[in-house]
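N-acetylmuramidase domain-containing protein: structure, please.
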Amino acid sequence: MATAPADAFARLRAAGFVGAAIKMQDQDLPAAGHLVGVGEDEMHAIIDVESGGSGFDKLRRPKQLFEPHVFYRNLSGEKRTRAVSLGLAYEKWKPGNYPTDSYPRLAQALAIDERAACLSASWGLTQILGENYAQSGFASPQDMVVAMAASEGAQLTATVMLIKAMGLAANLKAHEWKLVARGWNGPSYAKNAYDDKLAARFAHWKAIPDTPWSPDQVVAQPIPAAPLPARDPVPIGTAKLPIPEPIPLGGARTDPTAAAIDKIQPVPVPTPVAPAEPKPGLLARMAERLRIAFPIKKV
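Here you go.
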């Protein structure tokens, strides 16, 4: 699983969630789709419906939607009471209760509980819910947010892994939009005509020539297979499922392989030696010898 440096999330938070924000390249989309057996049109459909086609907002932050009902189920006791009193948490999902910018809400939620706040927002090109961090290939929800801020390529990687973990690849390939919508958006998908929107965006992209690409081309960063899920992926609007214990950022490693790697000392890199400068007059003497050996004949 992808693990960010221990202070990476703190630094990203201090930077206002503005990371490298690298946009995807033309061939990233067909390459990602190939890994789940579909073309770029199917991937475009999900991306368009979830984020309007971009993984970052105008401030170069990863697109993010804070979900108060998810925050509610990730809190308890005094923290939940405080969040409810501030309007940051409520028990059941409410339609249309989203501000234009969710980052102020996220900032308030982070002040209450950092991990719960990251779990309770949807991120990036395909709006992956933080609760699905493990199925998307990350060791913690904070690590997932750090990756989302880095690049749309990382967002695509997480999307492919989650499609595999949810078992939606075959449905996506068969264009079974109702099943894709249910898996990605939850059982209430029909209220927003989510399946119809997916079908419409797929039809739009199907009419446009695909980016030239073939599986024989080298993919710079191959996307690994999804790990075995620690729990079922959680679409927006579903009942709370048990959440695995978090892996502490910067905590001690317990994996024997990782521990062995930690003991490996870096190989010292020799200091490069600059090439010796030619002796004074050397080139001049060589030129004179060539002139004598090969005199220019006058016509």
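Notes: Confidence is low (pLDDT under 50) at residues 218-230, 236-270, 272-287.
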